Fold:
Amino acid sequence: MEIRELGEFKLIERILRQFKTDSPDVIKGIGDDASVTRLDDSRCLLTTTDMLLEGIHFSLLYVPAYLLGKKAVSVSLSDIAAMGGMPKFLLTSVAVPGNISTEFMDLFYRGVKERADEFSMPLIGGNTSSSNGGVIVEVIVIGEALTAEVVYRHGAKPGDIIYTTGFLGDSALGLKIWKARGDKPVTDPFMRDAMLEHIDPVPRVKEGRLIAERKIATAMTDISDGLILDLRHLADESGVGARVYVSEIPLSTAMKRHIINNPDGIMLSLTGGEDYELLFTAPPDMKTMIEELSKEVNLPITAIGEMVQIEEGLKVIDKEGAELKIFNEGFEHFKSYENQN
Amino acid sequence: MEIRELGEFKLIERILRQFKTDSPDVIKGIGDDASVTRLDDSRCLLTTTDMLLEGIHFSLLYVPAYLLGKKAVSVSLSDIAAMGGMPKFLLTSVAVPGNISTEFMDLFYRGVKERADEFSMPLIGGNTSSSNGGVIVEVIVIGEALTAEVVYRHGAKPGDIIYTTGFLGDSALGLKIWKARGDKPVTDPFMRDAMLEHIDPVPRVKEGRLIAERKIATAMTDISDGLILDLRHLADESGVGARVYVSEIPLSTAMKRHIINNPDGIMLSLTGGEDYELLFTAPPDMKTMIEELSKEVNLPITAIGEMVQIEEGLKVIDKEGAELKIFNEGFEHFKSYENQN
Structure:
């Protein structure tokens, strides 16, 4: 059987089964946004790694070297944010063809440095290699947290409210515009915002820390593969079901405009991925604290549904109150790309 | 300017300059076999990452999936060994084309698991991705050490003796045979050993730990790029010169036989790389302790030269006592490959 028939998530399940560990130092291994390992009696280490490949995860047609560096760091920072952790150290491996210019590398590392500096995170290692394919970037972020404060994908309970930070779908919309525009300039400032959202996402590190510190969330993850797919992972890990209301999804002006002419456009918010917003669940009595947090960080935090009994499964309810069937919940590697956003 | 004109090491220097850090948590950042960061008053964390690309670092014509997994882990373990550390956790990212078989992945992870289990090192994370080029593997090993015991590339002094574990050149000789053999079977058992040495190197973790614990070495690194190039890095970091005697290089039976018919064959031991042996320096009065260690671990540890004043530079002395000029000291990425071993 080929990997593309199995798909990414079944592959990960296979790996998981093979690598079960009973090490007392491993608090959470494979299967969350970052691994959690014991540091001492109160602290733990968070480790996450992401590989970005040209032609799969990004195109140099849309992403300039500087923003590629910045985004690569953001993607891994988002995983630390999703655990409620504090980023500490950065490692970056880069493989590039020999004909890439030194200017490209300088700009790439300038982007890496800018994002790393924002979070006082020194680059402590990595490696450089030649590639006979395209540009390949691996970013590793090591973070720290108080073990009692870490928020996992598991922990959500029926009755918990589902929240998301920011707006959903802009990154996927932005990518769509990048692909469609050819050499025509895009003048609509809102659409330009969405394009920027795709190539320069902001990791929600501060927000993740506050959510963890104040013990607001019962479960949390970031939206990288797409809202519905990431919610499914969170629901599965928690052993519960979920219900999301399309009418409640927070949309930017760009997405609202896009949907006027494209009734199916909402799918970008549900399954588009790469939003790098935080998706978390919290008991109903956390409502006021969440509203206060939202004001404090000046970022919308929106209730979009609730967790339900596992028997109800995961349902998306459209504006008419009917169930919206979703055939492709988000991005999965190895599955044939034509069917994906 | 293109990266291939600059070369890997000048590129790393550029990155180093850009990313200087004064964080009190960073004991050693970029520029050693692994980064060293503060854990608490006595312990530190060691982190290393290596990216292996099909067509650059390995060929699936020679390396079966199972040994690729095993070797990828060994390469990073060797970096932890070179610091005298204890491996703790493993993360692996893998990108493969969608038409790779699930059997390939199962075998690859079986190899990863076998080597990881030998060192009681659980796999705690990583990711899987599709690739539109070949197979790409990134291995991250997180280790631990007592801060006072870590051995760096710096620290060697004039008068220190240079030692290497094991035999040098077998990996490069093995690769040569793999490339040359076509579909002809290799029957010479010694040459078969060299071929295996290339695809299944043993990381010297135990030896590195003992060298560190007993405070034998003043400086240490592993031989991955080639003896002379790795020695140059160690000498540069220590601010001293070095003198290596060709007649003292430890050679396996395979290498000895190879040299009989190929007088230049010794270059494989000097610059071939991928030996994954430990190269370290120690004061002359450590001789007895090193001999005892060698017996204890049942592995040759051979004095091959001595560190000298920086003004003398790095010299390789041939069997006639003359200086051997070496134009290509080892493997450097981006430099044109035709000139490399």
About this structure: Confidence is low (pLDDT under 50) at residues 336-341 of chain B. Chain B touches chain A through 73 residues (CB under 8 Å). Chain B has two domains: 3-149, 161-339. The longest helix of chain B spans residues 65-82.
